[in-house]
């Protein structure tokens, strides 16, 4: 059994690099794995799952699964797979096919989340500030009763 890696779509590679803190950028995330895990959670929250298409071969290269495990994201990967398939067999640590399927589901949700982030962060100078606005908008989202007529959709 080979080492499994989390792949990133080539068209999302620049965004992932920009969101990661380095000497050249002031991104809000420490590692590529942090960006991918956040994007996957956002993809699930907004119900956006998208196939990868062309895979980035260079920076950022596919990330080893052990990086996600060391940062505690293995629970997120397993939970997403369990919710998506509704089959407990997907959690098997002895089944290589189950692990491949878990990774595939995680990659697609992460890609969907990166597409959402790309749209939300378009034109932003400071990604940290814009991400904070996105998170606050979600946190303080107002629930409008269905029987009331909502004029805010026309704004």
Q: What attributes characterize this protein structure?
A:
mainly alpha, two-stranded antiparallel ribbon, 155 residues, 6 helices
Describe the structure.
The protein has 155 residues and is mainly alpha-helical. It has one domain. Helix content is 50%, strand content 3%. The protein contains 6 helices and 2 strands. It has helices at 13-19, 32-45, 65-70, 74-85, 96-120, 127-139, and strands at residues 5-6, 63-64. Strands 1-2 form a two-stranded antiparallel ribbon. Helix 2 packs across helix 5 (96-120). The relative contact order is 0.18. This is Dnd system-associated protein 4. InterPro entries: DNA_S_mod_dnd_assoc_4 (IPR023983).
Which parts are unreliable, with pLDDT below 50 for 5 consecutive residues or more? none
| Rg over C-alpha atoms, rounded to the nearest angstrom | 17 Å
Distance between the termini: 54 Å
Into how many domains do the coordinates divide? 1
Q: How would the blueprint of this fold be written?
A:
Layout: E1 5-6, H1 13-19, H2 32-45, E2 63-64, H3 65-70, H4 74-85, H5 96-120, H6 127-139
Antiparallel strand pairs: 1-2
Helix pairs in contact: 2-5, 4-5
Protein name: Dnd system-associated protein 4
InterPro entries: DNA_S_mod_dnd_assoc_4
Organism: Coleofasciculus chthonoplastes PCC 7420
Give a short overview.
It comes from Coleofasciculus chthonoplastes PCC 7420. This is Dnd system-associated protein 4. The chain is mostly helical and 155 residues long.
